[in-house]
Amino acid sequence: MKILKDTTIAVCGLGYVGLPVALLFAQAGFKVFGVNRGKEKVAKINLGKNPIEGKEPGLKELIKTVHHQGNFEATTDPKIYHQADVIIVAVETPVEEETHEPAYVAMRSALKDIGQNLKKGTLVIVESTIAPGTMKKVVKPILEQESGLMVNKGFLLANCPERLMPGFLLENIQNYNRVLGGMNQKASEIAKKLYKYIIKSEIEETDCLTAEIVKSGENTYRDVQIAFANEMALLCEAMGANVWEVRRLINNCKKRGDTRVEALRQMHLPGAGVGGHCIPKDSWLLIYGAKDLIEPRLIPLSRHINDFMPRHTFHLLKDAFREIGKNLEGTKIAVLGYAYAGNSDDARNTPTEPLLKMINRTQAEVIVHDPFIQDYKKPLEEVLKGTQALILMTDHDQYKKIDLKKIKKLMRAKPIIIDGRNIFDKEKTRKLGFVYKGIGNI
Ligand code: SAJ
């Protein structure tokens, strides 16, 4: 199959990954179908409306442009796959809560739909983050079994992991280098030709296993880095130091005049927890690829340190209440930020959820605020009124503009601030009469 503009593309899954990808290929001139389970979302997209809230520069406009072009259609009908020359799979790949094993329900269902409607010669590309070995042990067998076609003969297969983050979806797709793992050379060549229509940066060809390890590994690297920062925060609290000053000085370890390299050290940000659609799960996907082969220690331990941070935030809250000689029961506590990252509406695996569970066990009244999430959009002043404590969980820009003098009047005497993202200045806050405890700076 030559990759020309008359190539029809189907994108399976119209979420944070699939929708921008589909729109960019449509903008490039391809006929594109987007297949998604939810009828409501499909209808909204077909009206040219953006289903993703939160700040996504350019997405709203791109949906409108493509809607007017008329070469993109969303549907719930998997039969459309039979019209596609290329099928891109962008469905979620969470891990089981207890076992941390991949929960491929959405992936298996998508592959079954695709296999049952697969046209001979189609190129299937998996963009979802998957455990190493999944292309060979899950994707290939399901597609072969459901279609009756053999990979490399009846259809082509590749893995091109997404490198996206909410808030920068369109920018990242076009400008981040991509790793492309082809099940054979022909799949790589065709996939590379296709992606060059929407990716301006490098596309590095490799094999499927390497591509799977790179993607889950790069996010594991970040998770381990964050765990180091979090453990440094706990150490600084214990020793009475300010981890933010420590981090600043570590990261400023530069040689005079040496502009060649980035700073020698890049200590990440300590915080109230690690959420999101990829970082909390990709370490487990990576480890799963080597299941029964090796028992990694650093990576699971990093996951446990990061998952401990919401509990540590709760401990700081209890310490603050002890300081003012009050119990949590019967008091009102405001939690600022439900999304897992600043200026996003994405709440997947949010660290705020475990924190709320712990507070709810104390019979304190808790009220959540988040400017990007429908259920929590109440005016901030209303949320803070009569509260004894506020816990800052997400670094939304709005919270950086909070007038502490003003909110002090809204809160009860001896108001408490637990700063999960180093938004406030400890000294200034304390001078205003708040009891302040920040992660790594108490
Ligand atoms: N977090 C910290 N400390 C840090 C960085 C993040 O506690 O130093 C927390 C955040 O608050 C959030 C979670 O970790 O709860 C994840 O944040 P993130 O910045 O890693 O954002 P994600 O989940 O969108 O991660 C994506 C990933 N990109 C891809 O998978 C392509 C990740 O590899 C990127 O490094 C990251 O975006 C990014 O650079 O923003």
Q: What would your notes on this structure say?
A:
It is globular, with a radius of gyration of 24 Å. Helices cover 41% and strands 13% of the residues. It is α/β, with parallel strands linked by helices and 442 residues long. Helix 1 (18-27) packs across helix 3 (59-69). An eight-stranded mixed sheet has the order 3-2-1-4-5-6-7-8, with helices on both faces. Strands 10-9-11-12-13 form a five-stranded parallel sheet. The chain folds into two domains: 8-201, 3-Layer(aba) Sandwich (Rossmann fold), CATH 3.40.50; 207-442, NAD(P)-binding Rossmann-like Domain (Rossmann fold, 3-Layer(aba) Sandwich), CATH 3.40.50.720. The protein contains 16 helices and 13 strands. The structure holds ligand SAJ. Ligand SAJ binds at residues 163-166, 218-219, 222, 226, 229, 268-269, 271, 274-276, 278-279, 340-341.
Oligomeric form: single chain
Task: Tell me the overall shape.
Answer: globular
Low-pLDDT segments = none
The ligands found in this model are:
ligand SAJ
What would you report as the Rg, rounded to the nearest angstrom? 24 Å
CATH architecture classification of the largest domain: 3-Layer(aba) Sandwich
How do the helices and strands line up, and which of them pair or pack?
Layout: E1 8-12, H1 18-27, E2 31-35, H2 39-46, H3 59-69, E3 72-75, E4 86-89, H4 105-116, E5 123-126, H5 134-147, E6 156-159, H6 169-175, E7 178-182, H7 185-195, E8 203-207, H8 208-239, H9 243-251, H10 279-288, H11 298-323, E9 332-336, H12 352-360, E10 365-369, H13 380-384, E11 389-392, H14 397-400, H15 404-410, E12 416-419, H16 426-431, E13 435-438
Parallel strand pairs: 1-2, 1-4, 2-3, 4-5, 5-6, 7-8, 9-10, 9-11, 11-12, 12-13
Antiparallel strand pairs: 6-7
Helix pairs in contact: 1-3, 4-5, 8-10, 8-11, 11-12
